[in-house]
Amino acid sequence: MLSGRTAVVTGSTSGIGLAIAQGLAAQGANIVLNGFGDKAEIEKLRINIELQSDVKAIYLPADLSTAEGARELISQAQEQMGSVDILVNNAGIQHTDSVEEFPVERWDAIIALNLSAVFHTSAAALPAMQAKGWGRIINIASAHGLVASVHKSAYVAAKHGVVGLSKVIALENAGKGITCNAICPGWVRTPLVEKQIEALAKANQTDIETAAKALLAEKQPSLQFVTPEQLAGAAVFLCTDSADQMTGTTLTLDGGWTAR
Ligand code: NAD
After folding, report:
1. Both 178 and 168 in a single domain?
2. Are residues 174 and 45 in the same domain?
3. Does the annotation mark 59 as catalytic?
4. What's the CA gap between 257 and 260, in Å, rounded?
5. Residues 214 and 94 in one domain
6. Residue of 90, 224, 254 with the most ligand 1 atoms within 8 Å of its CB, for mutation
7. Is there a single domain that holds both residue 101 and residue 219?
8. Which atom from ligand 1 is nearest to the alpha carbon of 155?
9. What contacts 240, CB < 8 A, 6 or more positions away?
């Protein structure tokens, strides 16, 4: 379905981004992996994608927390793969603290990666998509792009920003074969959330699995984690012809979190 297309998935060395890269590859897209981690482990992931899906996969280690890094990722991907047809803005970080105690450098880092990088990669990728008359920009926002929680000021601000930015990109490119949407997951059990489960276990003096259940019970009525594979399915759907007219919207996979 996606053969001949190239997808850049930011933050795809782990968690949701990795599952989306694998899901798009399974549909025939060539893949640009990006993110931090152990070089040998990343090389294994890259080779597995090539072998399992018979596509080309490369790894670009750009740090997206700077404008140059984010824009460079797209220009290098275009140079090495010929085009960037699908851009999945997924890389993200978290920090929790009350507003008055939130460290300024954590605020700046979260806004830079979770919001500004989405602007920079999109700005760099759009001209070639417009020239080609086809493109997909898929931004991994969050339930926190729609509603708030305490102690997550930077994350909630950035994710609300991503939802708004997705709408603007959608409007500016409506009718040009390019869609832009945001996926809003609830809790997904990745390294990013594992840290929060560990913190909760410590605070409540419970074991990890009891803390995981407590985390779900607070927000997610299904009491089940969303899986990275389910999010990959949503990303693949956004690349189909059925989603041609779906733009500027949010796809919420959150076990009912934002329904109440
Ligand atoms: P993760 O920690 O497993 O993965 C984050 C990825 O981003 C990794 O590949 C990491 O190397 C990369 N990364 C970090 N800093 C980077 C930088 N400066 N430049 C480039 N890459 C960088 O996290 P995850 O849970 O898979 O999160 C992926 C996205 O999904 C994030 O945007 C997150 O906010 C969002 N999200 C996660 C959940 C959840 O419950 N896990 C829920 C809603 C939204």
Report:
1. yes
2. yes
3. no
4. 7
5. no
6. 90
7. no
8. 34
9. 1
Structural domain that includes position 202 = 189-224
pLDDT value at position 215? 96
Q: Establish if 1 belongs to a structural domain.
A: no
Residue nearest to ligand 1 atom 12, measured at CA: 11
Mean pLDDT (whole number) for 166-186 = 99
Name the band, by pLDDT with cuts 50, 70 and 90, for residue 124.
very high
Give the C-alpha separation, 182 to 186, whole Å.
Answer: 13
Same domain, 151 and 201: no
Report d(CA 220, CA 215) in Å as an integer. 8
Compute, in angstroms, the gap from residue 175 CA to the centroid of ligand 1. 31
Question: Which atom of ligand 1 is nearest to 228's Cα?
Answer: 26
Q: Are residues 150 and 138 in the same domain?
A: yes
Backbone angles phi, psi at 109, to 5 degrees: -65, -40
Residue of the nearest CA to atom 32 in ligand 1? 92
Same-domain pairing of 129 and 50 = yes
pLDDT at 229: 98
Half-sphere exposure of 161 (CA within 13 A, CB side): 16
Q: What is the DSSP letter of 112?
A: I
Q: What's the pTM value of the predicted model, to 2 decimals?
A: 0.98
Which residue ranges have their beta carbon within 6 Å of ligand 1?
A: 10-17, 34-37, 63-65, 90-93, 113-114, 140, 142, 185, 187-188, 190-193
Atom 34 of ligand 1: nearest residue by CA position: 92
